[in-house]
What we know:
The chain is mainly beta. The protein has helices spanning 59-62, 256-264; strands spanning 41-47, 52-58, 81-89, 98-105, 110-116, 122-129, 132-138, 147-154, 157-166, 171-184, 187-190, 196-199, 206-210, 231-236, 245-246, 252-255. It has one domain (41-264). Strand 10 and strand 11 (187-190) form a beta hairpin. The longest helix has 9 residues, at 256-264. The radius of gyration is 18 Å and the shape is globular. The two termini are 23 Å apart.
Amino acid sequence: MRTIFLTAFFFLLVGCTDVDTNSVAPSTSTSDKGINNSSKGVVSSVNTSEKKVNSVSDNTESHFITPDKKSSNSFILPEGFVIERTIREDFNNNLIDDYIYLAYSEELSDFSEFWVQDNGRLFLTLSDLPSQNYHFFIDVDNDNQKELISIRGYEDGSDAKIAKINFDKKSLDTLFYFNPIIYSNDKYYWGYAWDIDSLIINNQKEIYSSYTNIKRDDDYAMAENQVNLPTLIFSPNKIFEPLIEHKIQTAKYRPIEKIVEFSMNNDMQ
């Protein structure tokens, strides 16, 4: 399918239609002037055809992040780059906010991300990025380290993936790419990034997922040695409008290790 991206860089209202929460992530737009990281915990109840399942998540991890246009530490961008937005996130797990700056160079016609630690030191630079970049951080494997879930793309396609943050090599190690699907009112729909609220994950860090093969006609990436695209299932936000429905089979909670195994193994079902 061809994924049509909107011109906004990030989400508008964040909430959900059929998932009950006791707090809602703040609204965002290209004119946002602040960052709100004071979210409470979220308890999501999902009714499936198999059984009623409950997932507990934290807004500061499982939701796409609220951006800002301000620089908040001493890091100086390379000459020619202008900050488009700033994300505040403790990606190195020391309980102090770090910063991710999405910046644009008119001379290079290039979007880049500069990941800066709380001490002002540059940790990682990602270059030649598309204009649409959505991501959040969440521990999906119980190792007390947050992984990156990102959806990036252009008008003719998107790539959704989970990556480990490699602190020794100062790099992102992709675990696998996946198909994003939204679960709403007992149906499954293609998960456009701007419609997603949060990943459905339970207390045991098992991800609500499926191995259903979804045929795509857009350009998409695969990790090295990856042979299958698993499906990860998300809850919708309040602006979600159902568009493309998919028939998803055997949706259930799975540990990340099983999903990685499926993505790399052609014989596993």
